[in-house]
């Protein structure tokens, strides 16, 4: 087998470290390859209905990448688009939290208070929660990323508007 394999058209080539130049720029929309690390971004708009149900119904932001790959969130920007009535928040502990699909580990988090309870458009940035978190491979490999609203129930009541989540993450090739 040659050291430099030709790009096979799959979303995640078998080994990104051997030949990063084999990647077609169109294969990774909204992403860049920087020093062998694949950086991607996803933007997702949550509707009023999704926001009101977010505490009990998570929303999938990124699908599972496949075996031998892990998604590594870096930071997110959350934009609130005021819809005429600010949301009522159940408690100051309510927060938008990005987690691995089906898991509860906080990867990136920002408070809902001061964001969706305002009478105008708002924007907030949040970075990864802690550097060096140890997460078992089985709780990271081939799992997508979802957003939930954590904290005291009920989290949001009344109100209307939407939230746009811009999530930046890396794709890590596991060995």
């Amino acid at each position: 087998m040659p050291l430099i394999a030709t790009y096979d058209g799959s979303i995640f080539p078998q080994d990104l470290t051997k030949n990063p130049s084999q990647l077609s720029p169109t294969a990774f929309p909204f992403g860049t390859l920087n020093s062998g690390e694949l950086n991607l971004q996803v933007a997702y708009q949550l509707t009023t209905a999704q926001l009101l149900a977010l505490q009990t119904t998570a929303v999938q932001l990124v699908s599972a990448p496949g075996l031998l790959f892990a998604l590594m969130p870096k930071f997110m920007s959350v934009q609130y688009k005021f819809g005429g009535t600010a949301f009522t928040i159940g408690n100051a502990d309510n927060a938008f939290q990005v987690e691995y699909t089906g898991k509860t580990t906080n990867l990136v988090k920002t408070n809902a208070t001061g964001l969706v309870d305002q009478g105008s458009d708002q924007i907030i940035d949040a970075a990864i929660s802690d550097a060096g978190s140890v997460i078992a491979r089985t709780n990271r490999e081939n799992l997508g990323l979802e957003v939930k609203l954590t904290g005291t129930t009920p989290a949001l009541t009344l109100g209307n508007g939407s939230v746009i989540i811009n999530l930046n993450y890396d794709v890590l090739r596991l060995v």
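DSSP finds one helix and eleven strands in the chain. Confidence is low (pLDDT under 50) at residues 1-9, 11-29.
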